[in-house]
Amino acid sequence: MSRQEYEWPDSTRVEGNLAETIEKSHAQLFDLLECLDAEQSYEELKDALLDRVERGLTAEDLWQDLMLKYFNQSDPDHYFIPIIISCAYNVQARRAMDSGLTEKAWFFLTEGSYYRGLAEGKSVDENTLKIVEQRHENGRKGGFGKAQKIKPARDEVVRLLHEKRPPAGWETKVQAADTIVGDLMKFVTDKKIPLTLSNLPKKLKEWLSQDTDVCAAFDATKHP
Hints:
- Helices cover 76% and strands 0% of the residues.
- By secondary structure, it is mainly α.
- The chain folds into 2 domains: 11-132, no CATH class; 164-221, no CATH class.
- The radius of gyration is 34 Å and the shape is rod-shaped.
């Protein structure tokens, strides 16, 4: 197509696309804020910024104010800054569009998308942190629960070390483990304790080396 034949897009359609893009940006910011802090209201934030923009505030002014307030501070609301700035640029974009300044509106929208990207990155970090913390908490609870379930087996090891003690005492931990492992397997099976029988000899040697109560029982029953 030659330059002479090219037709510029209809201005009405361009403005329609611009308005739709602005609203989509607001919707994305709404979702981000809900993800980071469900108690905060994006609509209230937007209304407050609209009022301030109407009174002459620009996103650049707002950015400087926020940086002065939060710079070098360990503040939990740092994540809120890019959302505020992006929202302010969206508001400015809508105001410019309504004034017929389409190019300026697109400029504001582009600037706002940069800060929205920062907010999206923060959202990923927050979600990742929450997932890691939840997994850690679940693992801690699960580990504690399992430890409680196998405690009777460790208590049985303590009992067997005393009951099966040779007259002169245990010569080595290996001797003690080899002597009591059969009785321990029967106990674990009868009591339905969640331990793998094939791994029990290894677990027993681990307890004899690391478990405080089991080690104390061995020291009390070993050969002088």
